[in-house]
Write a structure and sequence with these properties.
Elements: H1 2-21, H2 26-35, H3 41-63, H4 71-87, H5 92-105, H6 109-134, H7 142-167, H8 169-183, H9 186-201, H10 209-234, H11 243-256, H12 270-279, H13 284-312, H14 318-329
């Protein structure tokens, strides 16, 4: 099953890379890449670092009902998690992040994974908000509008489900136990009860309207800051689009990375970015050069820093497998 998921991701990435590079004039692309002012990557990496710091602060707020972890101890855990997403398939960095947190702070993985799921849920909602806010200024092609509609139903449905789950945990656990006792052997049912109980405990921030507002506002700030990275890198290229177009690009490419792909989101990040820029009059060679440079600038610094933190903590590649095994056995 694991190999099947990997191969599906590889196939999707190959198809996306083919679409991204189809019709590209290599000589024009090479001229663009050579003419870029790469110094603009430095402030871009700076604002992205701020975005990751805000992510760490948001995660700390979500974890507070479980434990109050200082920022200086939580920051390396977040960076390691994002590094894991960049180099391991199926977003295994999320599981690795919870594994490292349990190893450092003793927080159950199932509970911290619930907060990670909430992060992704609020990120998705902000991406959709970006799309709807920018549509009057930067309309989407019909195919993207249909995809966005599907994501809207998915994320809003998930939010309603988690709100109900957080507000009625005892009722949900009774329903869960009633169903698993009739389906699973007793040993597995008891294990499942423990995992679900810990998972529900990680959703407690949803019970506070104030905490939800803080999470939503910080999520919006995270993605506005990340869009600023797109803007800074654009300054090194011979084109200009409105900030609203970059907000739209940020939203669509990050929604697209939820599709299975190779580690690092090869193709699934690049195709929508290139096509959106072309939709707003940017030549293919310039759009391709910009999107690929942006992709590397997003991928390389956080991956290198996460690898350094892993080495500092005497962690290796085997810890990815240990993280998955720990999550399944918790």
């Amino acid at each position: 099953m694991k190999r099947t998921r990997i191969w599906i991701g590889v196939i999707i990435s190959i198809i996306c890379v083919y679409i991204a590079l189809r019709g590209l004039h290599v000589d024009e692309f090479w001229q663009i890449v050579q003419s870029v002012n790469y110094w603009w990557i430095l402030p871009a990496v700076g604002v992205y670092t701020i975005a990751v710091w805000i992510r760490t602060w948001r995660w700390r707020a979500m974890l507070r009902p479980l434990a109050d972890v200082p920022m200086r101890r939580l920051w390396p855990v977040v960076v390691i998690g994002y590094m894991g997403n960049n180099v391991y398939p199926a977003r295994a960095g999320e599981v690795l992040r919870s594994y490292v947190l349990r190893r450092r702070e003793g927080i159950p993985m199932s509970a911290s994974l619930a907060t990670v799921v909430l992060e992704r849920l609020f990120d998705g909602l902000i991406m959709l908000l970006f799309v709807f806010v920018t549509l009057p200024f930067a309309p989407l092609p019909p195919i993207y509008s249909q995809i966005v509609t599907g994501f809207s139903v998915l994320f809003l449905g998930a939010l309603v489900f988690f709100l109900v789950l957080a507000s009625r945990p005892a009722l949900f656990l009774r329903l869960w136990q009633w169903s698993t006792q009739r389906i699973l052997p007793q040993r597995f049912a008891a294990m499942g009860d423990d995992i679900v109980t810990k998972f529900v405990s990680g959703l407690q921030s949803l019970n506070s309207p104030r905490e939800m507002l803080v999470i939503f506002a910080s999520s919006a700030l995270i993605w506005l800051t990340e869009t600023s990275k797109y803007w800074f890198i654009m300054q090194g290229f011979p084109f200009h689009v409105d900030f609203t177009v970059l907000m739209l690009m940020t939203a669509v490419v990050n929604l697209a990375t939820t599709v299975p792909s190779t580690p690092g989101y090869a193709g699934t990040f690049d195709v929508p970015g290139i096509l959106i820029l072309q939709q707003f009059g940017v030549a293919q060679a310039i759009a391709t050069g910009y999107t690929l440079v942006l992709h590397v600038a997003l991928w390389l610094p956080i991956t290198a820093l996460g690898a350094w933190y892993m080495l500092r903590d005497h962690m290796g590649w085997d810890d990815f497998d240990r993280a998955v095994a720990a999550q399944q056995g918790e």
